[in-house]
Structure formats: C-alpha cells, structure tokens
Amino acid sequence: MKSVFRLFQKKEVKSDDYYDACQKELEDKQGKLLRKVKPSTKNELVGLALSGGGIRSATFNLGVLQVLSKRGTLKYVDYLSTVSGGGYIGSCLSSLLNNPETGPDEKEFPFRHEKGKPEPQAFKQLRNYGNYIAPNGIIDWLKMPAFFIRGAI
pLDDT tens across 27-85, in order? Predict the structure, then answer.
C-alpha cells in the first residue's frame, strides 16, 4: 500500500490515479504470491463447478448432485464453485451439509429420493415450476402473444 499512501501526500488526487495505484499494488502482491505458490495436484483436492442458467440450471444441478451422491463420489469434493442457478442449489447444499444429521453419502444426503416413496415437496415444486416461463405448458405458450401485445400497449 506504499504507492497508494504516496498519492495522499499530493494536494490533489484524482480517482484514476488512486485506482491505478491500487491496481499496481494488487498486481505486485499477486505476483509475489504466485511466485511462492506453485499449482500442484499433490494435495489431491477436488472441485465441482455448478453452472448457471436460472431455476432450470438449479434443477439440472440437483440431478447432478443426486447422482454424485448415489455413486459415492460427492464426499470427495473439497471445493464448490457456483454461478446463478448453480448457486441456488449449491448454497442450499452447503447450508444443509452443515447440519450434523446430513452428509454427502447416499443414506444421509439431504436431496435423496428413494424409489417407491413419495417425492419430497421441494422436488415437486422444482419440477412443476422449473419451467416458470410457461408452467402450464402449451396453454401458456398460446397466451404469450396476447400478453406481449398487452404489455406493449
């Protein structure tokens, strides 16, 4: 932060100068850190990325998480990176896994659904309303031109 503090010794400081000084300071620090830490697979850490796309993405990513849990691989995930719809389900999973009664294994997985048992209400909600643009199917699609015209008037 030395370069940033040097700026304040001037009588007039422009925001661009301040921004440039902060940017340079960050780049210097980042460069020092990158020289110290080399990428490595020695720690055998696993990351999982859940992509975005709104509620439909959240529904898709829910299925991905269910399969990973069922196959016993979700427990090996160390880092979770999420965006948009992936963030909905990823943050939900993270909060649920902080509960001592739940876990990534199939039997204690919070999003499990067993064949022959009633589907949890949350799954029904996602399935029924994941298509929020036209939740009632063809009828909603047929009404859309009228809604568009009404909105444009």
Answer: 777 777 666 666 677 878 889 999 988 888 888 898 899 889 888 888 888 899 999 88
CA-based nearest residue to 57, from 29, 27, 25, 89 = 89
Cα 80 to Cα 103: distance, rounded to the nearest angstrom: 15
As a whole number of angstroms, the distance between CA 108 and CA 103 comes to 5
State the pTM of this model. Answer: 0.58
- Could you tell me the two tokens for 115? 């064949």
**Rounded Cα distance, 112 and 119, in Å:** 9
State what percent of residues in the chain have pLDDT above 70. 82
Distance CA 143, CA 150 (A): 11
Can you read off the two tokens belonging to residue 45? 């850490």
**C-alpha span between 55 and 52 (Å, rounded):** 9
